[in-house]
Amino acid sequence: KSCQKPVDKYIEYDPVIILINAILCKAQAYRHILFNTKINIHGKLYIFCLLCEAYLRWLQLQDSSQSIDPDDLIRYAKEWDFYRMFGIASLEQTSFLVGIFITLWWMRPRMLKTKSDFILLLKALLLSSYGKLLLIPAVIWEHDYTPLCLAFIKVFVLISNSQAIRVTLNLNRMLPWFAIFFGLTLENGVVCLFQKMRWDV
């Protein structure tokens, strides 16, 4: 009231500009999206990102000499490997999120004392994983640099996750990265456990 200006400048901005600023990982754009909009697509976005990741892993399982007809949808539906990859991707993503929550709860328990705090942080983490949608063009336009593109996508998603944690809990830069590191450690532990179980079978 004292300055007669909006506290959130993005209220007056076009959604395209807000999206561009979110892609650039600007904290104020994240704050606007999380606190001043009624976006309720985090669950659907999470499932869609998992489907993209499962599809990418499933493609990597396929034999390169095998000719795949994209119109053969019935054969795709019968591919149990795809559903297995979806389950593994879900478990890995869940362990990553659990690792983040455990670290933040352990380091700053007063920040996550209510159920609404957990839900807001979960929503922020799921929305900030939108970079995984870039897996689709990376797979469609496959070229020699695809592994490098996938690494860049992973880094972009982790930077987005860090900004989401920072904005949601109003933290400095170091603690979100520590939480993400612990989440990645737990996720990689689950991957190693799955590989060990697969070799034992």
Automatic annotation (TrEMBL):
Would you name any one GO CC term? Golgi apparatus
Tell me which Pfam families the record gives: Arv1 (PF04161)
Gene designation: Arv1
Topology term for the membrane: Multi-pass membrane protein
Entry's InterPro entries?
A: Arv1
Q: Report the transmembrane regions from the record.
A: 85-106, 118-141, 175-194
Protein function: Mediator of sterol homeostasis involved in sterol uptake, trafficking and distribution into membranes.
Q: Which family does it belong to?
A: Belongs to the ARV1 family.
- Its domain of life? Eukaryota
Q: What is this protein called?
A: Protein ARV
The record's subcellular location field reads:
Endoplasmic reticulum membrane
